[in-house]
Amino acid sequence: MKLSVVIPIYNEEATLEELVARVQAAPYEKELILVNDCSKDSTPQIMAQLAEKYDNVRCFHHEVNKGKGGGLATGFAQVKGDVVVIQDADLEYDPSDYPLLLRPIEDGRADVVYGSRFLGGKYVRVHLFWHYLGNRALTLVSNCFTNLNLTDMETCYKVFKVDVASKLDIRSTTFAVEPEMTAKVARMRARVYEVPISYAGRDYSEGKKIGLKDAFIAVWAIVRWSPLFFRPKW
């Protein structure tokens, strides 16, 4: 089983090299698809160095900022593996959790696996209260529309069999991509599993990018992509 690890990147010069090293240490055949979303720091230069160092790293660049959703759409269009793993470019999520994430797929039980920060991984940094509450509230609203029973819809760690990933047709450009993907997975009636993951969350002084505005956008996306309004072509 070959992994396609899609990594959307925006101004992550401080963590990108270490993150890629951690992904490379995961015990799977893999390709790394790095998508630079018009970073203003030295991210493009670091990406070029990583592509020279590792023969399984491929790099793509946006000339204008397209948001996380745009980065994922670009990356998903390039996958050549059997399973797609979404990986943020910071160090909040630990690639050593890949075996946990992939086991339900390897066992033939799941088409999609979400890594939950709220099920009790090896370690979890204490969350900012309002950020935690917002995540749980958005997950609850999403569950009401999708009829899934997720604990962490907004998690970065989402893993898809490639036939599911190829049908997602990501349209959102912002963090609304999380509820969009969740609604579409529910619409497909894919077999969805959740597993506990580790989480070393950042606060806003450390570069966390999501805020209150993104919560309102996510609520609109939950409604927009719900089965009541969205009719996919597949």
TrEMBL record:
The keyword Transferase applies. Its EC number is 2.4.1.54. Keywords: Glycosyltransferase, Transferase. Pfam families: Glycos_transf_2 (PF00535). Gene3D superfamilies: Spore Coat Polysaccharide Biosynthesis Protein SpsA, Chain A (3.90.550.10). The keyword Oxidoreductase does not apply. One of its GO terms (molecular function) is undecaprenyl-phosphate mannosyltransferase activity. Residues 4-165 form the Glycosyltransferase 2-like domain. This is Undecaprenyl-phosphate mannosyltransferase. It comes from Rohdeia mirabilis.
